[in-house]
Amino acid sequence: MISQRGIEANPEKIQAILDMTIPRTVKDIQSLTGRVAALTRFISKATDRCAPFFKALKGTKRNITWTAECGTAFSELKEYMGRAPLLSTPEHGDILVIYLSVSASAVSSVLIRSRDNAEHPVHYVSKALQDAEVRYPDIEKLAFSLVVSARRLRPYFQAHTIHVLTNQPLRQVLQKPETSGRLVKWAIELGEFDIHYKPRSAIRGQAVADFLSEFTEPQASAATQLITKPTPSPSQDQTPINSTLDLTQPLWTLFVDRSSNAQGCGAGLVLVSPDKVALEYALRFKFQASNNQAEYEALLAGLRLAKEMDARQIQIFSDSQLVVHQVNQDFTAKDASMTAYLQHARHLLTTFHAHSIKQVPRSENSHANALARLASALEQGMGRHIHIEFLAQPSTQAPLICTIDHSPTWMDPILQFLQNQTQPANPAEARRVRHRSARYLIINGSLYKRGFSLPYLRCLTPEEGHYVLREIHEGICGNHSGARSLAHKAIRQGYFWPSLHTDAEAFTQKCDKCQRFANIPQLLAEPLTAMVSPWPFAQWGLDLIRPMPEGKGQVKYAVVAVDYFTKWAEAEALATITAARIESFVWQSIVCRFGIPNSIVTDNGRQFDNAKFKQFCSNLKIRLCFASPAHPQSNGQVEAVNKIIKKTLKKKLDKAKGCWPELLPEVLCYCIARHSLLKLPCRRPSQLAKVASRGKTQLPPSLLLKGKDQSAAPLLDTSTTLPSPSLCRTARPPAELQLLRRLAEPTAAIIHKNKPSCSEPTK
Questions:
Q1: Name one GO biological process term (predicted).
Q2: Long-range CB contacts (< 8 A, 24+ apart) of 16-22?
Q3: Do 381 and 251 belong together in one domain?
Q4: What pLDDT is attached to residue 153?
Q5: 489-537: per-residue pLDDT in tens?
Q6: In angstroms, rounded to a whole number, what is the distance separating the alpha carbons of residues 657 and 38?
């Protein structure tokens, strides 16, 4: 009922609950829970209040067992309904506050509106936990409570700014990179709302006080709190020192020692993981170092190694009294070199959440001592299984670094929001930044983009992106591919920036070799020819490239084979093009690797049209087809691959034209490049035949060859804006997705629909 005072519950429904007697049957309890469900928006923690009634209904059909817990809950429910709260109506521009509550069997929340220096409830939400939800960690239950509230109160979340008041690190958990996929999906779902996380302050309202009086927000138990406890030592008879360590978290152990003699200086360290896996590491100095300097070098190397292993807390054991007491601030470093080492060590220790360092006798540090002696010995005595690092200069002599000032980039607003919650002054821009930030996270100070398939993509500035494109396009494995292929190669290498596709297109247009050897169209385009190969590796095209510049081994020919379905190519450099060499190539590169094909299409050259090669194909039941004379389109697939190979070789070769045989395997990298033939992802190679008539594919032949699940392929296409997971669940799938569902039909249907075309080769 709506009045000037606000929204109040129907008095008749409240009176129906107050007039009820103690339930005696299952029907009575069902009637009670039904009446409560009609007023659930007015009842704080409705699911928790009705939990005893639900327990009484389990495992019975007629009679129930009315326990003392049920009686207490029934009395408290009547008492609460006698003073049911008055709900407030928010106005445009109001900032709403939400409190979250988690119990063992339910999650609850209350939406609050502040007015006249008081807090008034707007809506109560409660949901029982089912099956796996009961086993969620406490912090995930708290996040689940917020997600449930956002789904049920979606109009409020869309129209108002929401402040989540909680003393738990909810925002950090939703943004941390090591979270589960469930939390990542929730973070993306909540990213569309204007949500701010703030610590809980003083309560100003009786309704909120009633909600929080039974607040069972997950609190860390005494065992999980940071406690001051003696650090365990290698032996029980040693007197430990006190250090703040979280014994419930993984604890790493580091043993360090040094060795100095006439043969040289060295250090050794042993890093033991929480799983009791020991990592041995030896240092050999190429400079003269004192014993104390060597001890510090071993300590610094161990800390750097532990940092690389992502250790959070570490306990260190050393037999150097000076180093241990200086780090523990018991001794003062007076020497300039010791002061520099001490500052460097303390700086590295600040990167760990907790640490302790303790002096032990040399007898208890024998493992690290042996490594140090081994490192200081001659290099010929080193064991190959031990990692050795050679230090050319002391760690305190940092190399000179020229700092480069970068102009503002697209990452700055996202980084500022994720690190400091800093937002632009423009409200529209601030909202856009908050929504975009849900798809990004920070790992070791670097920004990464996350997708639904969860490969984290390193975000780059345009200058860094230009360097990456140049290395991929012109590097050792570069084949001067087109813009689309270049962009997808950069994504597969784990990089991302918004203008990736535009920059790739601009880069290929400015590439000197791409412009020199670009195709110059001189003939009119011909209509596309229907696919005549219904399954992978059923039909291969075979041809020769000749003549080529004479290379190493007097090779000057190349034999090329390509599968008509997957477009996978094989090539080999030959010195002679006899029938025996062609037969050997077909046997090794096609039959032994991909199985016996159904047919092979060649031209009318004597290397193919001879009795020996025909007998070879006849023995394997291979149908040998010959293209029409003076009509290369009859075997157009292999001719197209020949063009790609020759064009790529021209771009990679400079003046040494005879090096083409060594570069031929690199040219075949085009098989793993992204093509612009089909725009739909396929799960199996047999599905391509049905999609071919719709257009072109972006799948490289390597994916069709492997036949792997490519359902996540479109998720890496940064040119497409992806909907949120909630929209993906409710939105009607487009025609392309419906087509993919129909692609699971038998191959026989595909063969039936693929009729031979006029360009099919003649036998």
A1: DNA integration
A2: 17/77, 17/78, 17/81, 18/78, 18/81, 18/82, 22/66, 22/71, 22/74
A3: yes
A4: 92
A5: 888 888 999 999 999 999 988 888 787 777 766 666 666 666 667 788 8
A6: 84
Query: Which phi and psi angles does 93 have, rounded to 5°?
Result: 95, -5
Q: What is the total residue count of the chain?
A: 763
Q: Is the predicted pLDDT of residue 47 greater than 80, yes or no? A: yes
- 692: Cβ–Cβ under 8 A, 6 or more apart, which residues? 530, 531, 678
- Among 615, 647, 672, identify where a domain stops: 672
Domain ranges, residue 484:
439-516
- Report d(CA 76, CA 345) in Å as an integer: 60
Q: Which amino acid is at 747?
A: T
Contact between residue 441 and residue 418 where contact means Cβ atoms under 8 Å apart: yes
Q: Do residues 266 and 387 both lie within one domain?
A: yes
* Residue 667 sits in the same domain as residue 726: no
E-strand ranges in 627-743 read none
**Where would I find the beta strands (DSSP E) of 372-427?**
387-391
Domain end point (choices 639, 672, 705): 672
DSSP 8-state code for residue 287: S
- Summarize pLDDT for 347-372 with one digit per residue, the tens: 888 888 888 888 888 777 667 666 66
Whose CA is closest to 44, among 131, 2, 91, 103?
103
Residue 304 and residue 345 in one domain: yes
In a domain, 226, yes or no: no
pLDDT at 677 over 90: no
Instruction: Give the C-alpha distances (Å, rounded to integers) separating 536 from 344, 570, 592, 634, 706.
Output: 61, 15, 15, 19, 11
Residue in 241, 312, 234, 309 with CA at minimum distance from that of residue 271: 309
Tell me the sheet residues that pair with 259.
266
Q: Rounded CA gap, 529 and 234, in Å?
A: 76
Domain of 171: which CATH number? Answer: 3.10.20.370
SS3 string, 128-142, reads ECCHHHHHCCHHHHH
Rounded Cα distance between 410 and 421, Å, is 16
User: Are residues 619 and 546 part of one domain?
Assistant: yes
Task: For 179-236, list the strands marked E by DSSP.
Answer: 195-198, 227-230
**Main-chain dihedrals φ then ψ at residue 201, nearest 5 degrees:** -110, -165
The Cα–Cα gap between 150 and 152 comes to 6
Q: Is residue 269 part of a domain?
A: yes
Number of domain units in the chain? 6
Task: Please give the distance of CA 194 from its chain centroid, rounded to a whole number.
Answer: 25
Q: How far apart are CA 409 and CA 424, in angstroms?
A: 14
Classify residue 234: in a domain, yes or no: no
Tell me: do 582 and 706 sit in the same domain.
no
| pLDDT over 50 at 225, yes or no | no
Handedness of CA 565, 571, 577, 582 (dihedral sign): negative
CA 107/CA 138 separation, integer angstroms: 11
Q: Which residue has the tokens 């003269």?
A: 288
CB neighbourhood size of 5 (10 A) = 10
Rounded alpha-carbon distances, angstroms, from residue 305 to 254, 270, 274, 282, 358? 10, 10, 15, 12, 19
Q: How far apart are CA 671 and CA 706, in angstroms?
A: 12
Does residue 408 lie within any of the structural domains? no
C-alpha 696/C-alpha 688 separation (Å) is 10
Looking at the structure, tell me whether residues 443 and 550 fall in a common domain: no
Report the alpha-carbon distance of residue 539 to residue 595 in Å, rounded.
11
Structure token digits, residue 274: 């929480």
CATH of residue 383's domain is 3.30.420.10
Going by C-alpha positions, the residue among 103, 201, 87 that lies closest to residue 145 is: 103
Residue of 440, 482, 442, 487 lying closest to 468 (CA atoms): 487
Both 649 and 730 in one domain: the answer is: no
